[in-house]
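> @MW can you paste both from yesterday?
MW: sure, first one:
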Amino acid sequence: MPTAGVGGNARLTAMTGLVLLALLVLEIASAAFFFLLAGNLAALGGPAYDVIRPVHFFVGFLLLPLIAIKLASTGYRFGRYYLRDHAYHEAGPPRPVPRIIAPILIGSSVTLFASGVEMWSFRNQFGYAWTAIHNTSALVFTAALAVHIVVHVREAHRTAAAELAGTPIAVAGAEPAKPIREPLGGTVTRRGLLGGGLAFGAVLGVGASGFPVRSWAFLQPMRPGEGTFDFPIMNYEGGAQKVDVTRWRLRIAGSVAHPLELTEAELLSLPTEEHRYAISCVDGWTAERRWRGVPVATLLRMAGADRDFGHVLIRSTSGYFWDHDRSHVLAGGALICTHINGERLDDDHGYPARLIIPGLLGQSQIKWIDELDVGHGGPQNFAGPRFDFRNPVVTGHLLDRDPAGLRP
């Protein structure tokens, strides 16, 4: 009895590919949102961020078993062809463009999703610059995927349509009147495998993202507790800091009439405000606290910032920085924070001073601030620096406790 193994493999590959295409479009759209954030091209927060962030993680984890099925089905066909299995060899070799694109697509997809899981877990086991790795592999993957779609989408659509319509698989050399044997149950097995992959991926997605219900995020590795300082700590570039406040000064410089250098005591003597709002991280956690400190607008006014200034680049003793638009630093509740829930900042959370601006992501809320540099025009585009492989996030179970060296 002739077998429909080649045709069945093609149908599984096509069906999986079209489901992947729909999900990847959604994932790439949400990734574009994060690229705007990382590039400092837009301040996207609030309700949009609260939906897009968990959706990005949900879809990312949902894709994992489906990508595994796609790689397995495609790899099986390639392997059988190159091992000279008669049926697969008779079906013909892969076309030249897919032969070239396939290794690039496979390599970039594995790197993309592996680095995404690493960033989600925030283990950073080996100290690599995961943001740069993830961003670069995303661009390579998207380009290779576009070529892959152009080459395969029409054929995949025809094959999937035949599968959904229940059209029998044609086998070269077989008589139409004779039954065609489909290994492992044929259509039922293919649909079961695809449905099982979707179900398993959905469980992973909910557990990793907390979407649509945050309390269901049973896989999420970082969760804030109830204590004042019981929320995750993320350090970039220079790593954790212990600032010697006898030497530390908060400088306000740049396009100002009266550059300032404030000691800790001078900063603490200024009028303060206290507000309750949340700080959120792209990795999935949110912590709500009471933040007390000196309004950024007060410090800029004291320094005589130019009336038409456009941005303020805020630096950390670690070397990390973020360039904030004028509207951010003048917003109500934008503070150089010194206290959380009425307690003085500790070393891990930015002592002696950190930035907190309601509605913005944690990656731009600088800890261990030592300078505000006022400038004209728009804020820097951070896409370049955030592709820099020399600047890894500093954390991880397999790294030294302080890989960058604590400042005395």
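MW: second:
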Amino acid sequence: MKRLIIHTLALLFTALSAIAHPSFEEGNKYYAEGKYSDAIKAYEQVYEDGYQSADLYYNLGNAYTKLKQTGKAILYYEKALKLEPGHEDARNNLEWISAQTRDRIEVIPTLFYQRWIQSFTSLFQPAGWAWITLLFEWLAAGGFSLYLLMKNRRIARNLFYLSCMLVTFTIIAWVAGSGRLHQINRSDSGVIMSSSAVVRAAPNGTGSELFILHEGAVCDVLEQDQDWMKVRLTNGKEGWVEAEAMEMI
């Protein structure tokens, strides 16, 4: 619980600081003037100073879209949605620019319970889940205190059941918050940046060629072997690609 609160406050602080950073407004000014390369430099300065936010990544994605750098644009839209899954502008722009990529990768539907869990944990940011966890924890503590003081057996029994239910809700909220925090902090997917990248059967240049990915393709990263990464596509295909050909989300 303590770890969840600390990480939540850190994320909230960096998000607010990113928007308040002078380079963020400078980037907005350059973008409005059509100076997209300068806007990117300004936005990246915010990131280099240790701050991040969904809006910062969204703006970077927009600037790279204007420069027709598809891979970078997809990377930053994905980063924005990683921090804020409900960012509709980032999602819409990502869908639009993904339709411009060369690869048409079939998506294998996830199991219903996996979709349900992901949707449930994404209902709130870690900060929201942390407050909900604390609320249920306080209510549960108050319920148990009243249960111990209550002399009426029927009311005491109901208070006990209610407190147990609140403890259950506390655990659920804590697990959901930890899961959401894990979704934000994990780095197990990437975007192909090179115009084309050969995916091989082994982590070396002599491995047999399996298929080719192009700029903007998104892959799950399963493991790394020196300068090679084992990737998996949404259609289940796997193989090894050179690490320099992609950037992690």
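> thanks! Strands lie at 189-192, 196-200, 209-214, 218-225, 228-232, 238-242, 246-248.
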